[in-house]
Amino acid sequence: MSTEYVETVIVGAGQAGLSTGYHLQRRGHEFLIIDGNARVGDNWRQQWDSLRLYTPAKYDGLPGLPFPGKRWSFPGKEDVADYLESYAAHWQLPIRLNTRVRNLAADGDGYLVTTSTGTMRCTNVVIATGTFGRTPTVPDFADQLRPSILQLHSSEYRRPGQLNDGPTLVVGASHSGTDVAYEVAESHEVILCGRDCGNIPFRPESMRAHVIFPPMFFVWRHVLTRRTPIGRKLMAEVRFHGAPMLRVKSADLATRNVRRETQRVTGVQNGSPQLADGTVVDVANVIWCTGFRQTFDWIDLPIVREDGWPDELRGVVPSAPGLYFCGLAFQYAFSSMVLVGVGRDAEHVARQVVARTGATKARVHV
Length: 366
Prior knowledge:
By secondary structure, the protein is of the alpha/beta class. It has eight helices and 16 strands.
């Protein structure tokens, strides 16, 4: 395979990678975005059919290009995917698709990126591979469930029609779990299992939200940050337990007769899921809304902490000059997880990249 030099490689063509590219482009910096998918936005296209953003379109634009449509509409997954694709085309960002990264290693003062299509030497690497990671988290005992139980992770779930007839256990009561449980309960008996993650005290589509969203976004951006005690506490909660219920409320679940269990699923008894209190749940389907984990085993550098998250601050890795992250949950603030907050994080990373590259070039020419 060929080897080429690219000053900065951005891994991932999602909202974080595109935003970083936009800010680097504005500064006249050379870069290339690479992504394993066939189209920009495919990560969104692969979500469940009814998924909609929890924030209105007026807050969903990336730097330099507003989100199209009515300002107080809530885009679906296809809308977001198409917007990301149009964003990349609008700014003519250099993107190489169908290119999967296999290894990242140090190479002198820079890095060597080995991909499915070739090898790149670069001065900087920005890893923008997802807010919570892309490796589904499923308990080890899942393979002990009897074969007749259909098991899907939330990344595989698309619609209720995929499921067997009969009761369905949804494991995980964060916002995705409650959304899925509510939808499935229209056609199936549903048991929702998992700790109570709380909920926001209003519906995103309500008139009340028009008043609440502006100050709430201010809090998300400037108060709930890694610089404040409450922000650091929430960061740990969100990274390891998920976000609270957003669109679907407890009352909605009750309306559709969703059986709520706060006990965790801890094992298997006679081929069926067993809760921590010993209760055995006889079901035909299990949907694991148990989140994702960051998997960085392709990075041949000691930059990952014991908890699985990279050792970074605002996306900058102190122990590996020239290596950056963008798009992480709570990269700087609670807002880092939503489209409205990605741009600020991306701009900070871009500034660091440009400053380092300029300093490196200055040393070379001395």
